[in-house]
Amino acid sequence: MSSVNIGTWPRPNQRTRSIPATQNPSLHALKTLPIFPKRRRAKLIYSFSPISVSAVLAKEDTVRDEEIQDFDFKAYMIQKANTVNQALDQAISLKDPEKIHEAMRYSLLAGGKRVRPVLCIAACELVGGREETAIPAACAVEMIHTMSLIHDDLPCMDNDDLRRGKPTNHKVFGEDVAVLAGDALLALAFEHVAVSTKDVSPARVVRAIGELAKSIGKEGLVAGQVVDINSEGLSNVGLERLEFIHLHKTAALLESSVVLGGIVGGGSDEEVERLRKFARSIGLLFQVVDDILDVTKSSEDLGKTAGKDLVADKVTYPKLLGIPKSKEFADKLISDAKEQLRGFHPEKAAPLFALANYIAYRQN
Known about the structure:
By secondary structure, this protein is mainly alpha-helical. The chain has 16 helices and five strands.
């Protein structure tokens, strides 16, 4: 279990910081950073485990961000994560051939923060939908995320031995079964949305399926992964290419998670597009933070192999910008994300505000 104090990262404050374009010509988002006035911030500590989620206020500070003033993030995450875990457990039962089902369940039920399915549910509820309406889509994005982890860990890809604190799927079941387990999860994800989504119009279900497919295909996750592989060891990879990799490889599925919730929840086109912009920012934010954690935390802290990007000579935000400017970029992204939530009902938007904070200040 790990915890993070949201006051631990330095933040720009009181004045606008400018970075000459000649230093970073493609880093348009960092040329002018927003003003962050000084104020006392809540010291929210988030802790995650496969069993429970904790969020407590530090005793020495009682002022919380205005966006989540009366929101119990701990209770929300526990309730949603438990609901998702139960639904995932029910979605894949042990039956013949047992080995493939064991392999699918091994990775799918190995824990994890369930950020993507919770984002899906929160977006659905934000636009007036019900939790049970979003559960099939929420499970689908977690199945696809798990598939991507299984395949990403394979020797032909990132060649990793540890995931969520456990041996990776191919280390337990072999490379052949691991590939097939990922394939099976991918197929099941689409089946689950199509068959299990209730009280949603066929047109919206089809739209959701199309959105999900696009996020992981040649214009989504696969595109990002291919460019990432082709960029290993190159010395001339710039920020524009790095942003392409992460907007497709990481942000696309997070974006899809939120957009699916908005679609099945009955959101208008305008609401869905605002949710899309919110998700795109937090999706890129997720990867920026991931890059920072990879070089600042241990394998024990992360539950996966630390420093593997450095070993693989992969281009990352810390490698191109350094850690301080990477953290400034994270501040810009979370500010942009929260701006898209303004105008929604504050109480209904509170979970997404809190989840954006979690993504920004997590420690694994």
